[in-house]
Write a structure and sequence with these properties.
By secondary structure, the chain is of the alpha+beta class. The chain has helices at 12-23, 39-47, 57-62, 71-77, 80-89, 109-122, 177-183, 203-206, 247-262, 280-293, 299-302, 309-318, 332-344, 399-421, and strands spanning 5-8, 28-31, 52-53, 94-96, 101-104, 126-128, 133-139, 142-148, 153-155, 158-161, 192-194, 198-199, 214-223, 229-239, 243-245, 268-273, 345-349, 351-352, 360-362, 370-371, 376-377, 383-385. The protein is elongated and about 85 Å long. The structure holds flavin-adenine dinucleotide.
Length: 422
């Protein structure tokens, strides 16, 4: 059988790409090395699939710190609202949760994957699973087909590389696309883990003092060597046996990686504000009043409502306040030092978990070498890229999947148009 477009990779970007090419009437082959399509999509968003995000486009771009601005042109063709309509047309109703996050009303990622696969069948897209691609074959500056690992060669005028990054390799994303891109003349920017837990060798981490403790709605910052915040995220976090994790930490993680690289640091300072809603003076006054109102009670009991118990005890000890001391004996100076700990607890972190353990791969095929409205290569005709293989990375919250679906849509559509006109 002959094909106009070969899409390599059956993640969200490849599935969308194959559908878009099929809708343009192209004869499409979708190839995946795994037994199932959409394996990473099926575990995304805690297994509920955070398909997109309903915030305005400018906000979406802000939440994609890795080259989000590159997507402006693509969004003018197909955006988050189009994704929502697309899924509703496939019979997948979506609901909006906090921070604009969109999920299927069934809360089942597999429903999303199945709907995409059903659409591929409707469009008569040929699907090869268990078929790892060895390489994309080029001749005279254009695509002529792909070669599978088993030696089979399949001809096509256009190929879409949608093989994802290098994170969570058991889902199939093992970084195979970078070599194919380099062979076509593309630059691969440095790969690094993003949306990843952060490690620390601080004694309180090593001694597991706070392990398992989660803090809600705290402001976590990554500081530069001069002590100024590079980024602050106000969300939840958790202390683990190796360091810290949770939404605020995942979002900060890429700034830790970048700071270590930029300033050749072996550790970076992070700052934790456990009560970002109150300034230091307000907090001092309210703690002072609490202690004054109950002068005979042990401090740890008087201040119970302030913070989760383990964190309260931890910070009181750091401020040199005896947990059992009565309110009257705590000096102003000690209260101020406790307030400082609440508002500006700083600690050192020394890296992150590995790229394989990261939710998302930072870096990839340089977007400078990609036509932003078509997702086509500036160097090789008939070659298209989409999804996480590109140097685009966002926060979790539907931003990566949005980027994958939007770039996938454009790559598939334009690969079909190219193939038909050549
Ligand atoms: C646990 C987890 C939770 C996540 N949650 C969110 C979230 O809530 N919101 C969000 O926006 N993002 C989330 N992400 C990130 C998001 O899932 C990815 O960014 C997205 O899946 C990338 O899509 P993709 O199509 O580019 O690549 P992938 O989904 O990685 O798909 C790539 C496909 O290519 C195939 N492939 C690879 N090499 C070959 C080859 N040589 N031959 C043939 N096929 C090949 C693979 O088998 C795979 O099926 C999460 C990621 C993880 C791991």
């Amino acid at each position: 059988m002959e094909f106009d477009v070969i899409v390599i990779g059956g993640g969200p970007s490849g599935l969308m790409s194959a559908i878009a090419a099929g809708e343009k009437g192209a004869r499409v082959l979708l190839i995946d090395k795994g037994q199932k399509l959409g394996r990473k999509l099926a575990i995304s968003g805690g297994g509920r699939c955070n398909v997109t995000n309903r915030l305005p486009i400018d906000e979406i771009v802000k939440h994609i710190p890795g080259n989000g601005r590159f997507l402006y042109s693509a969004f003018s063709e197909f955006n988050n609202e189009d994704i929502i309509r697309f899924f509703e047309n496939l019979g997948i109703s979506l609901k909006e949760e906090d921070h604009g996050r969109m999920f299927p009303i069934t809360d089942k990622a597999q429903n999303v994957v199945d709907a995409l696969i059903d659409r591929l069948h409707d469009l008569k897209v040929t699907i090869y699973t268990n078929s790892p691609v060895k390489e994309v074959v080029y001749e005279d500056g254009r695509v002529i087909g792909v070669e599978l690992k088993d030696g089979q060669k399949i001809a096509a005028k256009a190929a879409v590389i949608a093989v994802g990054g290098k994170s969570v390799p058991h889902t199939g994303s093992t970084g195979d696309g970078y070599a194919w891109a380099e062979k076509a003349g593309h630059t691969i920017t440095d790969l690094f883990p993003t949306e990843v837990p952060v490690t620390s060798a601080e004694p309180f981490i090593k001694q597991k003092t706070l392990q398992g403790l989660s803090l809600q709605n705290v402001a976590l910052s990554v500081l530069n060597p001069k002590g100024k915040p590079l980024i602050t995220h106000q969300m939840d976090m958790i202390f683990t046996h190796f360091g810290i994790s949770g939404p605020a930490v995942l979002r900060c993680s890429q700034f830790v990686v970048k700071a270590m690289k930029k300033w050749s640091l072996s550790s970076v300072t992070m700052k934790l504000d456990a009560l970002p809603g109150q300034n230091k003076e307000e907090l001092f006054q309210s703690i002072f009043k609490m202690l004054k109102d109950e002068p005979k009670k042990a401090v740890k009991n008087t201040l119970k409502s302030l913070l989760p118990e383990r964190y309260l005890h931890f910070l009181l000890e750091r401020a040199g306040i005896d947990l059992q001391a009565q309110g009257t004996v705590v000096s102003h100076e000690k209260i101020r030092s406790f307030v400082n700990e609440i508002k500006e607890f700083t600690f050192q972190v020394n890296g992150t978990l590995s790229l394989e353990k990261a939710f998302v791969t930072g870096g990839g095929v340089s977007v400078k070498e990609i036509h932003p409205k078509e997702m086509s290569s500036k160097f090789t005709d008939g070659l298209y890229f989409c999804g996480e293989v590109l140097d685009i990375h966002g926060y979790t919250g539907g931003y990566n999947i949005t980027s994958a679906l939007v770039t996938g849509r454009l790559a598939g559509l334009n690969a079909a148009l190219y193939s038909k006109s050549h």
